[in-house]
Q: What sequence folds into this?
């Protein structure tokens, strides 16, 4: 067994081990750590394949950025203080695990059939030389791949704007109460703190809330939110 | 690289894809579902990098002055496409987590099976 | 060389300009409203060079970017759809979207349209993928824009999760296709596959790649393997965004499927065994036909029990995706014309209906069927317009939708797919039931209020334009079809293959 093959099997074992740990772990944070191990092993595979630059990118983007982002995501969304999946039904998942298992197994059978049944022929011109990062840069600036290069920048711009728009907590002072009501559906919740310049908005909010029946559904909440928004707008000007 | 080595890589990536799909379908926490989807995208990248080392399509495709350049071109192309996939994946995770935070603000749950307000 | 990229550049510039404008005018409500108008102007300006390019067949960026009849037809569909959606969004600005995000709302609609236009113009698998992502990521955010509304954020979350899964499936298929052929060019992928002995060796993997790609692309169409997101997302999204998803997003998905299927795969023929020639199209037809049949059945049957109108239209759009796929299964000389004509009929009727849904929903605070009761007494003209749209969608004879379905039906018969043709007729009849349920509320049920329903300028414009378009298509279907065939010769798509197949 050559060194390359040995390295492949070690890395592949780490990669699959990480994934299986993810699938069996209880604590969400352990799942993320297990997955970061998988991402690291995949970076090793890239280096083995002569894709050094890609390996480095993989470590920076996946093990670095995305895993940390995921940890932040988990810390920002604690579930009742517990970060574990409930012990009562840990394996039941969100949909029928049996269906998911059959789907995955069937898909793997098809992929295995296709890959193992193919006699791959290597072209005499194929190369195993490591690829220079400069070559990738050159390709990105060639006339053909310039356009995709531009488009990916637009995609990232949209993702940036979109993430800000969605995640920004822009109305925590007034809309917070509206959201709490909509969520609970019953008693109008009082926000814990009221800033002086928004007192009027809150008064409007409370009037609107008390005017409704308690059992009403969320359809008025939107109008109420508009009302509150209008008052806030007026306060600003 | 020999054909059997290529096959190892392709089977590994197939396993990764399938396990990622299984995780995406069964995990409850949204963050984990997103990361499982990242695994599926990683599987695609391994395919690209491994297959581009093999040039099964032949040398005449690349519109290159000399076929001996085709191997390097193919390897570079495979890795470039993989880079694009990584960028797209990062963008998707960012938007996904932002959507999760927006959802969590209203419902205080990161779990997929509790996203059930839309029914009928 | 013509400026073949001008429409895309205008939309991009307009989107960034709208964003910048919104940033500058963040504090003022009147100025934020202007952002929507700016986006609308962008769409109209982008229409001019698109119309000017009609008849051009040209490649740019070393073949990655291609303008031909197919591209321009879809560009027009996407731009018209986006313009109408912007008109709805402009008047529906109180539809739960926080007022400070109006500029982002408009800009994201433009970015999404840009993604669709890039899909239509791409002859490169990588560019197709990125256009798809641009469209998807913009749509995720658009769906979640009603930030104080649980349903909207939940819909966004579901859309991201299912969409990202579909992306991964698409990328996995793409990795096989690009890796095996060593090129990203859609046409060169097809030519490499047609090389002697290539399919015999790699056929299995390429079929796997094809199905992964198609399944990933069908997600945008909301057709069967990936339709589950549609009801929730359609229901939770702001109504204008729902209209966008039902029309523009679906048209873009169709452009993606057509480019991929007809550009790379459909025409590949190979010698499977000595003296046995197989071709990709006839090998894949049964599967595509099955997906189409399932979409028609699932969509129309599930729509029967929907009480929420937006949810009903989600299922209806699944069914329409099924109709749209039929020409791909039943390959015939006019398949692309059938798809484009049907998409146009579907787009006009749907945008009109969603304009009404938006206005009624905001007036009544509910999207339940009963919100439409007595609409005839409240707004008689709009009720008649609604009748026209529903008749067209249902395919009642002598409407535009009928001629669209007739074309598809004739194509299916021509291609020998009698089962699909039969299913098209049967499921259309099923669809009468739920379309009629809405009409019954509008015309026959007394409403809780007789107060006249005022329609704002934008919504009224959308309805009027949709009525005009549908009437034109209903009265002169032959002329519309002929004009389309002359202006957007679909065969141009295969210009690159001339003399080589």
A:
């Amino acid at each position: 067994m050559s060194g390359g093959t040995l390295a492949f099997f070690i890395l592949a074992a780490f990669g699959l081990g990480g994934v299986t740990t993810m699938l069996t772990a209880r604590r969400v944070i352990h799942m993320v750590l297990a997955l970061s191990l998988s991402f690291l092993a995949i970076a090793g595979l890239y280096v083995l394949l002569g894709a050094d630059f890609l390996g480095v990118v993989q470590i920076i983007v996946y093990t670095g950025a995305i895993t940390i982002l995921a940890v932040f995501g988990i810390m920002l969304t604690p579930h009742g203080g517990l970060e574990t999946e409930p012990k009562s039904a840990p394996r039941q998942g969100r949909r029928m695990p049996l269906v998911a298992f059959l789907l995955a197994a069937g898909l793997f059978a098809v992929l295995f059939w296709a890959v193992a049944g193919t006699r791959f022929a290597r072209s005499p011109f194929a190369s195993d030389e490591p690829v220079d990062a400069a070559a990738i840069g050159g390709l990105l600036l060639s006339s053909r791949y310039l356009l995709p290069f531009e488009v990916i920048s637009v995609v990232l711009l949209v993702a940036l704007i979109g993430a800000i728009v969605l995640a920004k907590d822009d109305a925590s002072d007034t809309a917070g109460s509206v959201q709490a009501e909509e969520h609970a559906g019953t008693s109008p919740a009082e926000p814990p703190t009221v800033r002086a310049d928004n007192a009027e908005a809150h008064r409007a909010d409370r009037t609107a809330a008390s005017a409704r029946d308690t059992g009403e559904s969320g359809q008025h909440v939107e109008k109420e939110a508009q009302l509150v928004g209008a008052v806030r707008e007026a306060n600003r000007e | 690289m020999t054909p059997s080595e290529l096959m190892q890589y392709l089977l590994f990536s197939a396993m990764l894809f399938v396990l990622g799909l299984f995780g995406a379908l069964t995990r409850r926490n949204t963050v984990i579902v997103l990361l499982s989807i990242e695994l599926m995208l990683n599987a695609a990248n391994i395919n690209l990098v491994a297959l581009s080392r093999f040039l099964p399509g032949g040398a005449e495709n690349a519109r290159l002055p000399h076929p001996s350049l085709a191997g390097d071109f193919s390897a570079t192309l495979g890795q470039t496409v993989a880079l694009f996939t990584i960028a797209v994946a990062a963008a998707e995770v960012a938007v996904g987590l932002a959507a999760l935070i927006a959802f969590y603000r209203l419902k205080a749950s990161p779990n997929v099976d509790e996203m059930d307000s839309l029914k009928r | 060389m013509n400026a073949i990229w001008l429409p895309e550049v205008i939309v991009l510039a307009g989107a960034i300009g709208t964003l910048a404008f919104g940033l500058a005018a963040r504090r003022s409500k009147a100025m934020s409203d202007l952002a929507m108008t700016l986006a609308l102007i962008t769409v109209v300006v982008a229409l001019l060079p698109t119309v000017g390019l009609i008849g051009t067949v040209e490649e740019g960026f070393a073949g990655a970017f291609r303008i031909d009849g197919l591209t321009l037809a879809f560009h027009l569909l996407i731009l018209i759809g986006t313009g109408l959606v912007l008109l709805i969004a402009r008047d529906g600005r109180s539809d739960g979207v926080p007022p400070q995000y109006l500029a982002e709302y408009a800009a994201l609609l433009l970015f999404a349209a840009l993604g669709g236009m890039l899909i239509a113009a791409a002859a490169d698998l990588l560019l197709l993928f990125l256009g798809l992502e641009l469209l998807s990521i913009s749509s995720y955010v658009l769906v979640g824009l009603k930030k104080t509304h649980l349903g909207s954020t939940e819909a966004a979350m579901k859309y991201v999760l299912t969409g990202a899964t579909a992306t991964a499936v698409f990328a996995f298929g793409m990795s096989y296709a690009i890796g095996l052929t060593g090129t990203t060019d859609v046409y060169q992928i097809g030519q490499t596959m047609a090389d002697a002995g290539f399919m015999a060796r790699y056929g299995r993997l390429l079929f796997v790649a094809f199905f992964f790609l198609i399944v990933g692309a069908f997600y945008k169409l909301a057709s069967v393997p990936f339709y589950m997101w549609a009801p929730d997302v359609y229901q939770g999204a702001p109504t204008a965004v729902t209209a966008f998803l039902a029309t523009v997003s679906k048209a873009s998905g169709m452009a993606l499927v057509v480019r991929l299927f007809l550009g790379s795969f459909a025409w590949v023929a190979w010698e499977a065994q000595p003296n046995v020639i197989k071709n990709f199209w006839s090998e894949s037809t049964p599967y595509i036909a099955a997906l189409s049949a399932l979409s028609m059945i699932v969509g129309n049957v599930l729509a029967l029990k929907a009480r929420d109108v937006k949810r009903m239209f989600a299922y209806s759009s699944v069914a329409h995706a099924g109709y749209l796929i039929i020409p791909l299964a039943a390959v015939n000389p006019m398949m692309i014309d059938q798809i484009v004509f049907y998409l146009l009929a579907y787009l006009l009727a749907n945008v009109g209906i969603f304009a009404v849904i938006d206005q009624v929903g905001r007036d009544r605070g509910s999207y339940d069927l009963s919100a439409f009761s007595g609409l005839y007494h409240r707004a008689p003209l709009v009720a008649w317009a609604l009748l026209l749209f529903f008749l067209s969608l249902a395919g009642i004879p002598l409407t535009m939708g009928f001629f669209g379905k007739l074309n598809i039906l004739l194509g299916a018969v021509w291609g020998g797919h009698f089962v699909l043709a039969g299913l098209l007729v049967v499921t259309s009849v099923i669809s009468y039931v739920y379309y009629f349920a809405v009409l019954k509320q509008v015309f026959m049920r007394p409403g809780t209020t007789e107060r006249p329903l005022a329609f704002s300028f934008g919504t009224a414009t959308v309805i009027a334009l949709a009525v005009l378009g549908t009437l034109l298509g209903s009265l002169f279907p032959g002329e519309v079809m002929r004009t389309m065939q002359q202006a957007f010769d679909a065969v141009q798509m295969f210009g690159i293959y001339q003399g080589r197949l």
User: Anything to note?
Assistant: The mean pLDDT of chain C is 90. Chain C touches chain B through 53 residues (CB under 8 Å). The longest strand of chain C covers residues 269-273.
